[in-house]
Amino acid sequence: MRISARADYAVRAALQLAGAREAGPLKAEAIADAQDIPHKFLEGILNDMRRGGLVLSQRGGNGGYRLAKAPEDISIADVIRVVDGPLVSVRGVRPPELSYTGPAESLLPLWVALRANVRQILDGVSLADVASADLPTRVSALAEDPASWTNP
Hints:
Layout: H1 5-19, H2 28-35, H3 39-51, E1 55-58, E2 64-67, H4 76-84, H5 107-123, H6 127-131, H7 137-144
Helix pairs in contact: 1-2, 1-3, 1-4, 2-3
């Protein structure tokens, strides 16, 4: 699985909004500066997040962006899906829509299992979890395993 720059920027922008929830709307420029994200790229991402129901925008001098829901109610998967589509696909196709034959037949359950595992992690972690540095135990355990940090 590959996390695109677009997904990374979207999650970072959402986390910036989660951290500023009490302060009111944030301007795109402030988010871009705080997270070192190209401003024009961020504008497109924020528009996708607005259309996807994750952020609200407000015009005017006191305008900007804010989360549409509480950070506890937005998973990392929600953000990635809004800007990049399905979490796991094979050649742009969702695993259940694939079929294989012969010795490759058992690839389908492998791709489905991979998708299920990715979903468990990303659907199970909210913006609030990351913003508070309080990741779920399962995620923390995986991250604390030294083998998780190395490439075979």
